[in-house]
């Protein structure tokens, strides 16, 4: 898994104006100069995680260690999921079809909707 941060700049309470990798020299909790100068209403630092992919499996017990780590992270951390699909149909160890990927997306969404934070 790869972890990082992105700073999201907001023009107002509902409009994202920009997202950028934060300046490493800035102290945690300090306000961005662009906010101080009035260019944006506020900014928000968000942690992002690139996790290993998942494969559609008939039985959840068949998941490997990395897939289980991905599922645990999504279940136990405040999560927004960006689901990336390989529309060539050649994703995964045994070449997942587009229909398999859509079914996997449906199952992941159902799982996350059933988890309360």
Concise overview:
With 117 residues, this protein is an alpha+beta fold. It has helices at residues 33-36, 65-76, 98-114; strands at 2-10, 16-20, 42-50.
How would you characterize the overall build of this protein?
This protein has 117 residues and is of the alpha+beta class. The chain has two domains: 2-48, no CATH class; 51-114, no CATH class. The chain is 28% helix and 20% strand. It has helices at 33-36, 65-76, 98-114; strands at residues 2-10, 16-20, 42-50. It has a three-stranded antiparallel beta sheet, with no helix packed on it. A hairpin with a 5-residue loop joins strand 1 and strand 2 (16-20). The model has no long low-confidence stretch (mean pLDDT 81).
What's the oligomerization state? single chain
Strand order of the largest sheet: 2-1-3
Roughly what is the average pLDDT, rounded to an integer?
Answer: 81
Structure class: alpha+beta
| Through-space gap between termini | 22 Å
Secondary-structure blueprint of this entry?
Layout: E1 2-10, E2 16-20, H1 33-36, E3 42-50, H2 65-76, H3 98-114
Antiparallel strand pairs: 1-2, 1-3
Characteristics:
single chain, 117 residues, alpha+beta, 3-stranded antiparallel sheet, 28% helix, 20% strand
């Amino acid at each position: 898994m790869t972890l990082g941060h992105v700073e999201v700049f907001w023009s107002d309470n509902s409009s994202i104006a920009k997202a950028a990798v934060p300046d490493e020299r800035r102290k945690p909790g300090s306000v961005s100069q662009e906010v101080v100068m009035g260019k944006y209403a506020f900014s928000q630092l968000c942690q992002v995680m690139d996790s290993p992919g998942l494969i559609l499996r008939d039985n959840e017990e068949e998941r490997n260690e990395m897939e289980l780590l991905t599922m645990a992270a999504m279940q136990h951390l405040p999560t927004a999921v960006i689901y990336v699909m390989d529309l060539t149909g050649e994703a995964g160890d045994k070449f997942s079809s587009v229909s398999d990927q859509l079914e996997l997306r449906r199952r992941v969404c159902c799982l996350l909707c059933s988890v309360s934070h």
